[in-house]
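Lecture notes, part 5. Sequence design as translation. It can be helpful to think of inverse folding as translation between two languages: the language of shapes and the language of residues. The source text, in structure tokens, appears below.
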């Protein structure tokens, strides 16, 4: 599939994940968030930038449990828990954080 944003044509999977993470920028994240009815706040951006950094460092995506533990370790226990993350991304914190961050769909997500 192709997503056209600001004159750019971006290849996506059938579920709307960017094929090339290097195509990503904040405007694309905002567009994808609008498509998912998510109003991005500073708290969302913190998680989006965290998962981009994690992927850049480790070259793979964590499962949900590792994702939450990694957030707790870096950003604190108040943010590294499923209740907080589900408030930000109600339909799946890891899946939607990755999608909005321009990363592949996590293999553990449906």
């Amino acid at each position: 599939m192709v997503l056209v944003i600001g004159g750019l044509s971006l290849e996506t999977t059938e579920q709307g994940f960017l094929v090339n993470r290097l195509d990503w920028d904040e405007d694309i994240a905002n567009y994808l968030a609008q498509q998912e009815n998510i109003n991005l706040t500073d708290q969302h951006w913190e998680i989006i930038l965290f998962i981009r950094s994690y992927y850049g460092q480790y070259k793979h995506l964590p499962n949900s449990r590792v994702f939450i533990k990694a957030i707790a370790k870096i950003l604190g226990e108040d943010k590294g828990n499923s209740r907080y993350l589900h408030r930000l991304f109600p339909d799946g914190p890891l899946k939607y954080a990755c999608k909005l961050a321009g990363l592949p769909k996590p293999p553990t997500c449906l």
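The translated text above is only one of many valid answers, since several sequences can fold into similar shapes. The helical segments are 26-35, 42-58, 64-75, 82-88, 93-100.
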